[in-house]
Predict the 3D structure of the following.
Amino acid sequence: RSGDGRAVLRSSVREFLCSEAMHYLGIPTSRAASLVVSDDDVWRDQFYNGNFKKERGAIVLRLATSWFRIGSLEILAHSGELDLQRRLLDFIIQQHFPSIAMNDSNRYLEFFSTVVSETANLIALWMSVGFAHGVCNTDNFSLLSITIDYGPFGFMDSYDPNFVPNTSDDERRYKIGNQANVGLFNLSKLLQALKPLLDPRQKQLASQILEGYGERYYIRFIELFKTKLGLLGENADDNYLIAFLLKVSLLC
């Protein structure tokens, strides 16, 4: 893609601060352990107006419980390396999903159910603070449902479901209002990767689990916004009030 793979100091500081902010907002995320300034110069067109300037390069050292992504399984399924995929999946479950028994014949189904639920939770959390990831492809979605790969992210200054922080996203695929739908798309790709390891009954159950993603996301979204508004208990009008306030915010 004609990129040099380097980062400049200003974007590295931004990445460092954002991931720490996300952590203290209670959102699952990778952490920034250190930021080191490079002696190398990097040329960047900051405002995409043809005016390239020399900037200081930098490296952010990031830490996470795991860097396995949906794409980690997707690439093995695509290449037909099913034995390796099975070994990797068992390793991930054993290391990071202790509630799933390794001798359970439905362990891959339980794994998928957990990832669906936690992905819905993560995206609802993003939405609750107005965070747009910017590049929500399967290679940037953690199997542990933590925020990874901070790139062209952004926070909304005011409510706008069409907000896009990524200047290269001309089709607005990853606009903030589409993040939940993109999450569903990515989970469908995960299911596609898992299907060679599932029997017919498990495939059917997995499809039903995926169909429940939207409801899980919506329930968590409502819970978070009720908390933000200080709404206690259950009231039939709560959902209407939240939708009304978001609609009013568009006019502000």
User: Anything to note?
Assistant: The chain is about 50% helix and 10% strand.
